[in-house]
Specification:
mainly beta, 15-stranded mixed β-sheet
Length: 212
């Protein structure tokens, strides 16, 4: 197993109500799971391959809850990545060189036997964790726009967090709303004003690193 580690940010939008029942060991809001996510890594490595400044994204969809499997996934790696970085990021995103159940990528891959061709395209991603805002734009695949939760009475911005001391994706997640519009092979028609988490990523082949 090649040791690896990445540090950066994630914006992930799924079709559930804000808060996402999965985070609380409940079934998905509408019975099935579908999501789009983008990742930007400030620093990282895969063995001797430097992953600083790289970006990835993914579109995933399951006919039921994730744990029931039979999902379809497609990974996108920013076209600026070198051949060595592409190979490293592909292995990380598909759960290879990772201890069992250590990351969400391992879980998503294990539960998605239907893997579409990995794409290499420009990924425009902006993540403002404190502001609970951001976007992901991958030409010909999907666009996600995120904004803060708002009070339904006053319209004021509302802040809520998910705290997962034993999570395999993040420790603290800022909750927001987002809409994803797809134009690629996987259609996500239900990701409208739905759950989004905006988080710091500190992951390795063994899972979350440090105290984050």
């Amino acid at each position: 197993m090649t040791p690896w580690e990445v540090h950066g940010r994630e914006l992930g939008n799924c079709n559930c109500a804000p808060g996402c029942p999965c985070q609380f060991m409940s079934l998905p809001t509408y019975g099935s799971c579908e999501a789009a996510a983008g990742f930007e890594f400030d620093t990282g490595h895969f063995g001797d391959v430097d992953l600083s400044g790289t970006r990835t994204a993914m579109v995933v969809k399951w006919p039921g809850p994730i744990h029931e499997g039979n999902g379809t996934m497609q990974i996108i790696i920013d076209e600026s990545a070198t051949p060595e970085q592409r190979e490293a990021l592909h292995r990380i995103m598909t759960g290879e060189d990772t201890e069992d159940m250590a990351t969400m990528w391992w879980v998503f891959s294990a539960m998605s036997p239907n893997k579409l061709e990995t794409l290499y395209k420009p990924i425009d991603i902006a993540v403002d964790i404190e502001g609970r805002r951001g976007h992901i734009r991958v030409p010909g695949v999907f666009e996600t726009e995120a904004q803060p939760l708002t009070n339904p009475v006053t319209g004021a911005e509302h802040r809520a967090r998910i705290d997962l001391p034993n999570g395999f994706e993040f420790r603290i997640g800022e909750v927001a709303r987002a809409t994803t519009r797809t134009s690629g092979a996987i259609d996500l028609p239900n990701n409208r004003d739905s759950h989004t988490h905006i988080v710091e990523i500190h992951l390795s082949h063994k899972g979350i690193t440090g105290t984050h």
